[in-house]
Amino acid sequence: MEEAFLLNQTSIVTYFRLSGLSVNQKVQMAVFSMFLIFYVLTLIGNILIVITIIYDCRLHTPMYFFLSNLSFIDVCHSTVTVPKMLRDTWSAEKLISFDGCVTQMFFLHLFACTEIFLLTVMAYDRYVAICKPLRYMTVMNWKVCVLLAVALWTGGATHSIALTSLTIKLPYCGPDAIDNFFCDVPQVIKLACTDTRLIEILIVSNSGLISVVCFVVLVISYAVILVTLRQQISEGRRKALSTCAAHLTVVTLFLGHCIFIYSRPSTSLPEDKVVSVFFTAVTPLLNPIIYTLRNEEMKNALNKVMRRNEKKEGKFKSIGH
Membrane-spanning regions, if any (predicted)? Predict the structure, then answer.
């Protein structure tokens, strides 16, 4: 009895082995270069958006308030997985501690779920702005915006705590290989030394249901917006369509991954890694591109911030001389 207990104690998994994206050294170097560029551009683009919205008073509106939240989430979401993956490309053994794996899963689901709720709120904001313009500032006042922000972060935290708690309560005694470049709940629970069918059902009914329901709500919202836009003047319609097209692009890319991964049992597919790359590295980079290149207000505000920095640099140079 004592020997069996000692055996169980020594067989508990303390580290997981990540497979990464490739075992080929040349491919890994190419992946490192690509992800490093994506990550740096993600940081620069999203942080620049947040700074621009803070400094430009004309952007102190509900839409840009939520956009600044989206940029902040994208920076955090990308930081949860990409730096670890970049470091692992130089390591023969891509190890992550059990605690590190749990931490990664918690923050991954915190930021992902919060972003899903945020995209839904942004769709509602556009619906009110386009379909009920006279009531917009009454419905979407600052008190409502702050309450919505608190609610979506609280919802994301609750979702993440629930999933992480279910995962860490399972016994792990081997194997320890995760077929991905980061820890996620579906891959981790497959390694548990117990029947996980009930937990898989809970994951599908939780994460999968949230993704599908939010996606349906978003599609209905934008369908109503498009019907409303048919009755508006051409210039207003063009601007609104541009904004909605940007939102729909982000929604499709982001929620498409969530539905693909979390709306099915925990089985590995060859496409999982490709979808995960878009989820963790590409989508956070696309947000600043979509919301700046397709938005005249953001482009004008960015130019204003750049000119202000150039003037400051000119003053410092003149003082130095």
Answer: 29-55, 106-124, 144-162, 208-229, 241-262, 274-293
CATH of the domain at 40: 1.20.1070.10
Range of the domain at 199: 17-309
Give residue 145's Cα distance to chain centre: 20
Task: Indicate the pTM of the whole model.
Answer: 0.84
Integer Cα distance of 71 and 298 in angstroms: 13
**Total domain count, the chain:** 1
In a domain, 9, yes or no: no
In a 13 Å sphere around the CA of 158, the CA atoms on its Cβ side amount to 9
Is residue 315 a part of any domain in this protein?
no
Answer yes or no: are the C-beta atoms of 218 and 119 closer than 8 Å. Answer: yes
Write out the DSSP string of 164-226: HHHHHTS---S--EESSSS--HHHHHTTSSS--HHHHHHHIIIIIHHHHHHHHHHHHHHHHHH
